[in-house]
Design brief:
The chain has about 950 residues and is an alpha/beta fold. Helices cover about 35% and strands about 15% of the residues. It has 30 helices and 31 strands. The strands form 8 sheets. A 6-stranded parallel β-sheet has the order 21-20-22-23-25-24, sandwiched between helices. Strands 5, 6, 9, 10 and 13 form a 5-stranded mixed β-sheet that branches. Strands 14-15-16-18-17 form a 5-stranded parallel β-sheet, with helices on both faces. Strand 28, helix 25 and strand 29 form a beta-alpha-beta unit. The termini are far apart.
Length: about 950
């Protein structure tokens, strides 16, 4: 049904074209204007308005590549079947003639559903080389190269209906034959035609032009009706959205099957025409517009908004005499298109599940995102914008996810945002496959990341984009601010690679555009969004850094605040009112206020789908809610893990793998990955599948030898909040992903690191693989819990602690070599003690004389060295950070201040232990690098033994 207000002209600018949908005299007119050529297709209006006709239309344009993709025909057939059912729901119930037509169409559509796959797929194979391959395409007098084709084809099903009009004693204008009293029923063949339409931007119809010159007919017989399929070229329809599938059910045509229904054959007639009660109701005009209130691209206002965003950045940087102007000024048009048109978001609900995620990887350009968040209606006031980089404001120097509403992730170190975006994209792919159903699609968003030369040069980004290309994350769009400038100098000083070629080779779709052109940006993003072709997208946007300040624009000086002293003249040149600061015009405010309402309405429509999905899938809904809003309790997780025998031994990496599988089977949103070391790190989830293009629900991620990207990708997954990620490698390689670990701690992300081969016990691999300093180096990162368990039960406590933590990351340091179970204390004591970070493993049986403190594999030496000494207490301290968070009373109960004779033992550097042993204590550690020999030999050679403990206690 058409909305009551649909009679108003609705205008949308798309790639320089105007699409006007107008309702005149009960007839819907689609009016196209090719602005560059100035051609007006008035013939549409003349021919349609001159007759009393109704045309029902719903439409979609699909990527050309889909025609050759497996199963495309089946998907199209299913779509047709559903759309015809939609028609049925809106037809007049009492219309017998229409019922006959409906029956025919339904039967035909159902028949099409079974045959269309073969027809389309076969045709695509035959026609594909001509359509999208390496040959030229003959279009009568024109020849069109594939490179000139816009890259899309529309597919339509056209059905003729000879049962529309009754004519009064005159030749029937609806038919090619003359007939008196044309009051017949279905007469002649009822033609259903499948149309594959090539977008030829140079081919525009004029009155009388025939469009079936390239027609190919494939007769297909069914039991219901005679059908003939035509494959032929039509003109480009630039204004239609990629979400539409065009089906024109055009009444009044009864022609031989070799003809194709088209407007150009309809001629005006002065003869009076009257309709019968059997005619289709006019209320069905333009039956479905997927976007009932399309988002308008108002170039004038968006250009104005871009300049006002520039003004906000200039004022903010000038006011605090700090910051970076280059990107906010150079990418202002990109911001205008994203936040003013293409982003799927709702500023009133920044955490909407199906929003597009926008990540500013080039975080130094933070005034870019602050300006656009403010303009588009997020809860970021102009007062906060004016407090840029001021203590306590919500506009810090680099974007912080926990500080500013609408900021998806903390970015500052270059390249991290790209890795985060890949994590978001992976999470989105996994969630869509897991939660979407055939009846309800609740996740179909995109991840858009804006990055500069610095981001792309960083190794973490190159690792991440290779991973994205290999895993075909086609929901990822990378906009590269290519401005030929880095901070110190012009970019040519440090780079000369062919970005287009590199990313194409990595499996990405890559295009180059003018990055300060609104139309080019809009087209590129629109094409990237609809290009679900198994390739992530990079838009190489050639921008002018510092645009708006002529004195520095296009130079390295524009990168920072160098242009701030010129802002008054620059603002005047941009048309901003003199003497104003942090200025936003009423027109721009009104535009974004209206856009905010439209976005809220779109969100509201999605909410209806989401509610219907929840009602139809209560199990999935409960699981999704638990993933997004629930919290795991360590005590509950521990009940999932059977206790280990009091006697025996196992490497904590091995017991960790068993424990992890027990927990993951019960918690479906836990996922894991390894940097090409699953066989060594033992964190593979058995029977839970491998993530990849053909299995996006797989819970094991093969990161390859990309530790840094693994860390950044896990952070992105954690930011998205739908899955609990973990990544694994050898502990010594933590330094390869340390920046990502640090950012996880800073941003309070619940990421778990499962790092094995935790000490010189690695043995023969030698000092390069023996992390003597690594554990202490990680312990100094604020808000990172480092847990080094001493046996299997402590390992159970460590995993429970990690996956129940919600306010920061946890790193598990696990052993390669076997460790004995410490059965002198109960399993419950060891598990609960690990949750608290430290506990009394062996309690003294005489007045307390000394305390031995140990972690990990050295707990066994502490216990053995204290044997036979009743006044000695052994404390296991697997996690400094968790122990330090306990109250003073608990810490005193474990390490009473009165006992000053303390010995600590750990196979690593000794520096951090002094706070536990005090000035009168002693530390048995390794303040040097290791050596290559069997593990036990190395321990003995470096003095990490029970004998060393006993000697210290003597």
């Amino acid at each position: 049904m058409i909305p009551d207000d649909f009679s108003k002209a609705q205008i949308r600018h798309v790639r320089g074209h105007l699409l006007r949908i107008v309702k005149i005299g009960g007839v819907t007119i689609v009016h196209h204007e090719h602005r560059e050529r100035g051609l007006f297709h008035h013939d549409y209006e003349q021919r349609i308005v001159s007759r009393d006709e109704t045309i029902r239309i719903f439409s979609i344009i699909v990527p050309a590549g889909d025609l050759q993709s497996p199963g495309f025909g089946k998907r199209v057939g299913e779509h047709l079947r559903l759309q015809v059912a939609l028609l049925a729901a809106q037809m007049h119930e009492g219309d017998d003639g229409l019922g006959i037509l409906l029956l025919v169409i339904l039967v035909a559509a159902l028949s099409l559903f079974f045959i269309i796959s073969k027809v389309i797929d076969d045709a695509a194979v035959r026609l594909g080389p001509q359509m999208i391959g390496g040959q030229t395409i003959d279009r009568g007098e024109q020849r069109l190269l594939p490179s000139e084709v816009a890259g899309h084809q529309s597919i339509g099903l056209a059905a003729t209906d000879p049962y529309q009009h009754r004519c009064a004693d005159q030749p029937c204008p609806a038919h090619s034959h003359e007939q008196s009293q044309c009051g017949h029923g279905l007469q002649g063949p009822h033609n259903l035609r499948l149309l594959i339409v090539h977008p030829d931007p140079d081919h525009h119809p004029s009155p009388g032009m025939e469009s079936q010159q390239q027609s190919r007919e494939i007769p297909v017989r069914s039991k219901a009706i005679d059908e003939s399929f035509h494959f032929f070229s039509l003109w480009h329809v630039p204004g239609l959205s990629d979400k539409h599938f065009q089906v024109a059910l055009q009444p009044g045509l009864d022609r031989p099957a070799s003809d194709s229904p088209q407007f150009s054959t309809l001629k005006p007639t002065p003869a009076p025409v009257r309709k019968t009660s059997r005619a289709w109701p006019h209320l069905a005009l333009f039956l479905t517009l997927i976007d009932p209130e399309p988002l308008y691209m108002n170039k004038t206002l968006l250009a104005q908004a871009a300049n006002e965003a520039r003004g906000l950045a200039m004022d903010a940087v000038h006011k605090c005499s700090s910051g970076h102007l280059g990107l906010p000024l150079g990418c202002a048009e990109i911001g205008a298109v994203l936040f003013g048109e293409t982003l799927q978001c709702d500023p009133a609900d920044p955490k909407w599940l199906n929003r597009d995620r926008f990540i500013l990887s080039a975080g130094h350009g933070s005034m870019f995102i602050y300006s656009w968040l403010h303009l588009s209606g997020y809860d970021l006031s102009i007062d906060e914008v004016s407090k840029f980089r001021v203590l306590g404001s919500h506009t810090p120097g680099h974007p912080e996810s926990f500080e500013t509403v609408g900021v998806e992730c903390t970015t500052g170190p270059l390249g991290q945002g790209i890795g985060n975006a890949v994590g978001f994209a992976l999470s989105g792919k996994m969630a869509a496959a897991k939660y979407n159903t055939a009846e309800h699609k609740i996740i179909d968003n995109h991840i858009i990341v804006l990055a500069g030369d610095g981001c792309l040069q960083e190794g973490v980004a190159r690792e991440a984009v290779a991973f994205a290309g290999h895993n075909r994350l086609d929901n990822l769009i990378l906009i590269y601010d290519s401005n030929d400038v880095t901070l110190d100098a012009m970019a040519k000083v440090t780079q000369d690679e062919d970005t287009l070629a590199i990313y194409s080779a990595l499996g990405w779709d890559a295009v180059v555009i003018e990055g300060n052109d609104l139309d080019a940006i809009s087209t590129a993003i629109e094409n990237a969004k609809k290009g679900d072709n198994g390739k992530p997208k990079i838009i190489i946007a050639r921008t002018l850094i510092g645009k708006g300040i002529p004195e520095v624009a296009g130079t390295a000086k524009a990168h920072g605040e160098g242009g701030a002293k010129f802002v008054d003249a620059a603002k005047k040149g941009l048309g901003l009112p003199e003497g104003t600061h942090f200025y936003v015009s009423d027109e721009v405010k009104a535009y974004f206020a209206d856009l905010k309402n439209k976005r809220a309405a779109i969100h509201g429509e999605w909410n209806k789908v989401f509610l219907a999905w929840g009602a139809a899938n209560p199990g999935l809904a409960k699981e999704l809610d638990a993933a997004r809003h629930g919290s795991l309790k360590a005590e509950d997780l521990l009940t999932l893990v059977p206790e280990y025998p009091a006697e025996g031994k196992a490497a904590t990496r091995n017991s960790g793998g068993e424990i992890f599988n027990h927990i993951a089977k019960a918690v479906p949103h836990i996922i894991t990955g390894s940097a090409d070391l699953f066989g060594s790190t033992k964190n593979y989830l058995t029977g839970m599948g491998d993530f990849g293009p053909t299995n996006p629900t797989g819970r094991n991620i093969w990161f390859g030898i990309r530790e840094h990207a693994m860390g950044a990708i896990c952070n992105g997954i954690a930011y998205d909040g739908l899955f609990l990620p973990s990544g694994a490698t050898f502990l010594v390689f933590a330094d390869y992903c340390r920046p990502s670990i640090r950012l996880a701690a800073l941003s309070r992300l619940p990421v778990t690191y499962i790092f094995t081969h935790d000490s010189v016990g690695v043995g023969e691999d030698g000092p390069t693989h023996q992390p003597v300093e690594t554990v202490s180096g990680l312990r100094v990162i604020p808000n990172l819990d480092v847990i080094r368990p001493g046996d299997a039960e402590e390992t159970a406590g460590a995993f429970a602690a990690a996956f129940s933590r919600t306010d920061g990351p946890t790193l598990l340091a696990l052993s390669r070599q076997d460790l004995p179970h410490q059965g002198t204390a109960s399993a419950a004591t060891r598990r609960e003690g690990t949750l608290k970070g430290g506990y009394v493993l062996v309690k003294e049986t005489a007045p307390l004389e000394a305390i031995v403190i140990a972690t990990g594999s050295e707990v066994q030496w502490a216990v053995e060295g204290a044997k036979g000494k009743p006044g000695v207490r052994v404390v296991s301290l697997p996690c400094f950070e968790r122990f330090d968070r306990q109250d003073a009373a608990y810490r005193e109960s474990v390490l009473p201040a009165a006992c000053t004779k303390r010995i600590a033992i750990e196979a690593g550097v000794s520096g951090l232990w002094w706070k536990y042993v005090g000035t009168q204590g002693q530390i048995i550690g390794i303040d040097r690098f290791g050596m290559s020999a069997p593990g036990n030999t190395v321990f003995k050679q470096l003095g990490i033994t029970a004998e060393a403990v006993a000697k210290a206690l003597a």
